[in-house]
Amino acid sequence: MELRQLRYVVAVVEHRHFRRAAQSLGMTQPSLSRQVGAVERELGTRLFERTARGVEPTAAGEVFAAHARRVLEQVEAGATEARRAARGQTGSLRLGFVGSALLELLPSLLARFRSSHPGVNLECRELSTGQSGAALLAGDIDLAICRGAPTGERAERLTAVPVSGDHLVAVCHRGHPFAGQPSVSLDQLRTQPLIATPAADEPATVRALRPLLDHARGVVHARDVHTAIGLAACGIGVGLLPSCARRLSRPETVVVEVDPPLRLPDLTMAFRTADNSPALGAFLSVTSAHCSGIAHRLTRLMPTEHQNGG
Questions:
Q1: Which residues form the HTH lysR-type domain (predicted)?
Q2: Strand 218-221 versus strand 91-97 pairing type
Q3: Buried b vs exposed e over 85-95: b needs ≥16 C-beta within 10 Å?
Q4: Does domain 93-310 have CATH number 3.40.190.290?
Q5: Hey, which CATH number is domain 3-86, 2.60.40.2000, 3.40.50.150, 1.10.12.10, 1.10.10.10?
Q6: DSSP letters for 30-61
């Protein structure tokens, strides 16, 4: 028995007339009669009785039509959900991110994605750049926001797209000599104990800071921006942070520019190159619209159905 035959039976029950049911279905009355007759022969029972005005469903016809309606509704619901899933409107997306991504990029980007794709289950985990690459390759996350592109074994299987740039600033206690200066030089920073991220967590950032860290009076490691600022507030040292950390200023701390400016690794979006998940494609589409400066990089990576906003 085919789905179309279920539709034929339901139409006859609704119209109580073969000719009118056939017209609603866009077919001839003889064709409809043959199809309904085939269903009756398969079931081994009559579904309709002829009347002066048309037909009436038998008890078997009423029961069969009720079940046929439910089947057709379920099939239509399944088709709708399948189309939504193909457009990235349902499903799940697991995101790993460095803490500094929460300062500027992610709050507005995630709000925009959740608004346009409320049916996608979004799982978020804070991970260092070092952890993100391994998690992507292991299939533990689908997307990473990290500092610089992930490196290491099998990193060639990942696609990395810079989404925003940043530069170095120094964070110190309000009573520190640097606090009253408009900027500090690299030579001045080298005379201080510094607070920086561990190399295992943020290898690209530490490589950029190597000229400072190799000659500093000492280095205290802090895994996230909040810890670094907190240590600076305690007078432990001078924090080396991305400029977006200005959003986390505290009464006890001052943010000072570094002159000449030292560019830090870009905030980067990374994912498995072979991943054709519709939910990932939808997120890339939203990111492309949200971060207009990288739209041309992301558009060529997205499936066609997502290139106009999913």
A1: 1-58
A2: unpaired
A3: bebbbbbebbb
A4: yes
A5: 1.10.10.10
A6: HHHHHHHHHHHHHHTS--EEE-SSSEEE-HHH
Helices (H), the chain: 3-15, 18-25, 29-43, 59-86, 105-116, 129-138, 186-190, 203-213, 225-233, 278-290, 295-299
Q: Which two tokens stand for residue 49?
A: 């009785």
**Helix or strand holding residue 259 (H, E):** none
User: Alpha-carbon distance 181 to 254, whole Å?
Assistant: 10
Sign of the Cα pseudo-torsion (197, 198, 204, 206, in order): positive
Rounded alpha-carbon distances, angstroms, from residue 293 to 26, 161, 302: 51, 11, 16
pLDDT tens per residue, range 169-228: 999 999 999 998 999 999 999 999 999 999 999 999 999 999 899 988 899 999 989 999
Joined tokens for residue 76: 């239509």
